[in-house]
Structure formats: C-alpha cells, structure tokens
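Data card: per-record layout.
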Amino acid sequence: MNPSNASARQAWAVEQLDVQSEDRVLELGCGHGVAVTLICERLDGGTVVGIDRSPKMTAAAIRRNTEHVESGRAKILTTSLQDADLGHATFNKVLAVHYPPLQRGDAARELAKLRHHIDDGGSLFVIALPLASDNVPAVADGIVTLLTTNGFSAEPARIAEVVGAPIVCVVASPEPGPGGRPGST
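The structure for this 185-residue chain is written out next.
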C-alpha cells in the first residue's frame, strides 16, 4: 500500500518510529491496520503484532494486511493489552496511536505489562491527537507525567501539525530498577 493512501496522521506516527528492517513492533489499538501496513512495508526479517479489542477492527486489519499476515511479518490479535498473551515476546518499539488507556485515567497496569515486553533500549511511542492547538502543551505534559510516574523516562514531546490538526508524540523507555523494567538493576 502506498503511504499516500494511508491516513496522514498514521503515516506521521509510523515515521516517528524510524522503522528498521529487523524491528519487532507492537501496535496497541491497531484499528483497521493502516500503521501495520506501513510498518510491514519497512520490515525485512522484523515483525509487527497489532492488538485491538474490536473484532470488527481486527477483521479489517487482517483483510488489509493479508499478505503480511500470511508471510508471518504481521500478527493481528483481538484482545486488550491486559488480556493479550504475548508470552515471552519482547519488542524494541511499541506504538500507541490515540490509545485510550494511555490518554486518560490510570494506565499503571498497562504500563507495567509493557515494561515486561519492551527490550532493554526499546521505546514506547505514545501518539495523541489534541482537539485544538491550545491543548497541545497540556496533552504532552499529561502523557509525560503519566509515563514518568509509572517507571518510564520520557523524551521531550515531538509536536507537529498534520492535515491542519495538531499531533503529539512522546517517546519513552522503561527505567531500570524498581518501578522500571523488571529484573533490571
């Protein structure tokens, strides 16, 4: 699929990942699979796992990505993050575009689970779509606070305007030691 056919916001989000050919990516809330497609187009040996709670969305994601699923490059799961059986899989990049558990409320359980599945040196990319430009600082600060109070270190927010609307990306990594990546010192 040509990126021009994909959502401009999804394309911007995937650009933030700087996908390398061998990456192992987890996408939270994959929807109908646009980002999965864009990620798979950059992989050569790597994989992407997309999860979404909606059977309708995952069915659409599988249809959109049939070739990638059949090749083993992509796997789509109908589940919540908390219920996802990821086994011992680890990922060097996790993408969460407008993912509700990381946008509002208490995300401690989700972030604790993610710490178990992000490689040492791996990153979580949280993408938010503020409703208005004047909300951008509060949205970015809220994500950084959520992540840092749950055992992650966060980089300064990346902010852009895509198709006339603001978009925010916060990149974070699990902190080593207590509250951070389990088993780290």
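Known properties of this structure: The beta strands are 24-28, 47-52, 74-78, 91-97, 118-128, 152-154, 158-162, 165-174. The CA atoms of residues 35 and 54 lie 16 Å apart.

See the next section for split statistics.
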